[in-house]
């Protein structure tokens, strides 16, 4: 079975292709703003969640719940606002002469996101009993993704794999 594609290979390829298709439909500008709005929301929640929690003291008596609520409120508010800005800009680009370019770049962005997601799934799958499955062990796609993950970790300065092997 070595070298032949199995269910895991088709599943990982489907993740990449679905991500690329999503990128085509959403376009580059919307994809980038989507990613950026999540990053900005996380930063804002980490930076201002504590302040928001202070304003919730009268409403929420449990400290841990109050901090979680402050984080969630800031995260959601920034995510909604940034998403609205992204939608407006994406609509402007889509109706302009750049609409085709936006969709083409969206496919490339989607492919990259799909490959990153597949890399993460393979690394996480390697930490589960799934790694003992014969289809997993014989998978050419899993082998390629694990090799790519190893190279990325060496390039990034990490000395060992996430799974603990060297």
Can you summarize the main beta sheet? none
As an assembly, this protein is single chain
Number of strands: 0
Query: Which percent band covers the strand fraction?
Result: under 5%
Whole-number average pLDDT?
A: 88
Number of domains: 2
**Rounded to an integer, what's the Rg over CA atoms?**
21 Å
Terminal CA distance: 27 Å
- Listing every helix as H and every strand as E from the N terminus to the C terminus, the arrangement reads HHHHHH
Look at the helices and sheets and give the structural class: mainly alpha
Distinct helical segment count: 6
Helix percent reads: over 70%
List low-pLDDT spans: none
Q: What gross morphology would you assign?
A: flat
